[in-house]
Amino acid sequence: MFILGIDPGLATTGWGVVEYTKQGFWPVSFGIIKTESKERLQDRIFTLAEDISTVARKYKIDVCSMEDIYFARNITSAVPVAKVIGALTYKLMEMEIPVSFFSPLQIKMAVTGTGTADKHQIQEMVRLHLKLDKIPRPDHAADALADCICYIQYNSGDERLRRN
């Protein structure tokens, strides 16, 4: 099973692909998609959706795990991010790729075991879980890989049952 993790953002969207089998899970690829602030909002959203669909096709993605929006930070930036999430979800669902959403707290808990972990702790645990030599860069790509790990932690029992 190939899992696409997405850390959605208007300026930078992180993505990561993790393969998950009975033997375990490991990273396949990761990166970011950037858009320019001088572009029109609708063009930026369209670019993100098209580029994510290209990644999904390239890696033959089975499911997507996406960080859900967190409104307590900054409501002004939350609205454009919500639009990005909607466009990405639509594009992936159109491709018949199921999308699961996880809150930042759920992701922290799944990756580190605590909801109070800071960004560096999460990134270090991503490195350890995926047996990488160094923390994945840029940060948004590491966050997307954390989304994949979260999906596995929350759904691994269900997957084992379906495979047996």
Please give the number of β-strands.
5
- Look at the structure and give the CATH class: Alpha Beta
Intertermini distance: 15 Å
The number of helical elements comes to: 5
CATH topology: Nucleotidyltransferase, domain 5
How would a crystallographer describe the biggest sheet? 5 strands, mixed
Rounded to an integer, what's the Rg over CA atoms?
15 Å
Report low-confidence residues grouped into runs of 5 or more. Answer: 159-164
CATH superfamily: Ribonuclease H-like superfamily/Ribonuclease H
From the coordinates shown, what is the CATH architecture? 2-Layer Sandwich
Strand percent estimate: 15-25%
Derived structural class: alpha/beta
Strand order in space, largest sheet: 3-2-1-4-5
Shape: globular
Summarize the topology.
Blueprint: E1 2-7, E2 12-21, E3 24-34, H1 41-58, E4 63-67, H2 75-94, E5 99-102, H3 104-112, H4 119-129, H5 139-163
Parallel strand pairs: 1-4, 4-5
Antiparallel strand pairs: 1-2, 2-3
Helix pairs in contact: 1-2, 3-5, 4-5
Which short descriptors sum up this protein?
Nucleotidyltransferase, domain 5; 164 residues; five-stranded mixed beta sheet; alpha/beta; 5 helices; 5 strands; disordered C terminus
What does this molecule look like?
With 164 residues, this protein is α/β, with parallel strands linked by helices. The longest helix is centred in the C-terminal third of the chain and has 25 residues, at 139-163. Helix 3 (104-112) crosses helix 5 (139-163). Mean pLDDT is 92; it is low at 159-164. The chain is globular, with a radius of gyration of 15 Å. The chain has one domain (2-163): Nucleotidyltransferase, domain 5 (2-Layer Sandwich), CATH 3.30.420.10. Helix content is 51%, strand content 22%. Strands 3-2-1-4-5 form a five-stranded mixed beta sheet.
